[in-house]
Amino acid sequence: MAVRTVYHLDLDSAKTEGAALALLPGDPGRVEALARTAPFERGRELACKREYRTWIAYLGRTPVLVTSTGIGGPSASIAIDELAQLGVHTLLRVGTTGAIQADIDVGTVIVTTGAVRLDGASRHYAPIEYPAVAHPEVVQAAISAASALGIACRAGVSASCDTFYPGQERYDSYTGYVPRRFQGATEEWRRLHVLNYEMESSTVLTLTAAMGLRGGCVAGVVVNRTRSEAITRADLEAGETHAVRVAVGAMARLAGR
Ligand code: URA
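Above: inputs. Below: predicted complex with uracil.
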């Protein structure tokens, strides 16, 4: 079979060894640790270009890619499209998030079932009426992994934005100004039972659904916006660690299906 090469990820289908599953952290600095988390074995780096770092690791005989997407929809869309071109059919984002419901503690893992599409990139793949929904098998795998690990998790709708500051109604930015469109938005999402803000789920879920792939997102809560705006080092560690454990557990379940 002809070898397929993709430009941004600096990969080809020979290097990826038939991998059909991928974990997608945002941060290239988290890729190695993820690929070395048990039960992953034999992890090694395949490529590193711009924000895209890819390792391959094995769950038994099943190869899994761990590819960083960078922050936000545009760069995530490139990673998803190029991974799909290489034959990947199951993509699970693992990241961090800010909760907006009062009863969600730091360290809880949000399993996004659907996303409010406040991004721009997903509109280039499907019209805004198209839902950003996770694949039910990915949602089920993540909930089951969290439950087996004893990690608190909440499944529901996330608001997914292109910006960390105005789009998530943060006033602690350089100007402190939030355009009128976003003033009061957090209260509205809260009343509509949206659980959290993050920056990639609308792109991941719209693209994977529109491409007929299995997509999902898990994100560790690193701040509860009803209590504080500060993301402390300890809270970041708690959210990241739990999200990684749930994501790897979910992948192990998905590899068997
Ligand atoms: N990532 C986000 O996009 N928002 C937060 O509040 C925390 C992490």
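Residues 96-98, 164, 168, 197-199, 222-223 surround uracil (CB under 6 Å).
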